[in-house]
Specification:
single chain, alpha/beta, three-stranded mixed sheet, 8 helices, 6 strands, binds zinc ion
């Protein structure tokens, strides 16, 4: 924690969400480079704090904020912008988690212990609202990337097959394999890996390529920014 605070040149502001707020945690950096970590009130755990600290640490190591450009002005709609923004949480975050899981484990903390419960609820909770095809893919992707237990992973696949979502499961699995194969270790690796996963996810209907890289001053730090170009076919 001290190491991250030294990096930002500022103490980390810690907040707590009341029950009913978002689950687990989140991090942000304001315009003055002041980092904030917010944790769910019923999940004030060392694992949850370590997780958000690791996201902040990656920023200090030059892992970029992602900005989107679309190749065609017909697609500069709020709906597309929201959809692209959502992919940072559903596809980019799981890649970051893969990058820092080993570091958290080396600190003697089990990384993301809640994911086993998320998977179990996902398989057995019948009242769960149905998500779209993209949501099914990214859920399969993030859970197979995070949960090591192969019996649970088989149950997840079986539940997708029961629901007629075999194609979604296979796409999610291909994305997780891509991350394991590329094994990202640097900011550039992460952007390459994110683009590669998006290209599998979009199955040739869209593609993502790195357009440019820059950085923005946020208080004591220069935060890296990678701009991805999305093409529609
Ligand atoms: Zn995270």
């Amino acid at each position: 924690m001290l190491e991250v605070e030294r990096g930002f040149g500022h103490v980390i502001i810690e907040r707590v969400w009341e029950p009913g707020g978002p689950s687990f945690g989140s991090y942000e950096i304001d315009a003055n480079g002041i980092p904030t970590i917010t944790l769910a009130k019923d999940d004030l755990t060392e694992a949850n704090l370590a997780h958000e600290l690791m996201h902040l640490k990656l920023i200090l190591q030059g892992y970029p904020r992602i900005e989107w450009r679309v190749s065609d002005s017909r697609f500069t709609t709020q709906e597309i912008a929201n959809e692209l923004h959502e992919l940072l949480a559903t596809i980019r975050d799981p890649i970051e988690h893969f990058i820092f899981h080993a570091t958290i484990a080396a600190m003697g903390i089990m990384p993301d212990p809640e994911d086993v419960g998320v998977l179990t609820r996902y398989v057995y909770d019948k009242s769960r609202p149905k998500e779209g095809s993209g949501g099914s893919i990214s859920m399969f992707f993030s859970l197979t990337l995070s949960v090591q237990d192969s019996a649970l992973r088989r149950q997840l696949l079986a539940s997708y097959e029961r629901k007629g979502l075999r194609a979604e499961a296979l796409t999610g699995k291909a994305m997780a394999l891509q991350v394991r194969r590329m094994h990202p270790k640097t900011p550039k690796d992460e952007v390459d890996c994110f683009s590669a996963c998006l290209n599998i996810y979009w199955a040739r209907k869209r593609t993502a390529t790195l357009l440019s890289q820059s950085s923005e001053r946020r208080g004591n730090i220069a935060r890296k920014v990678a701009t991805l170009m999305v093409k529609f076919y």
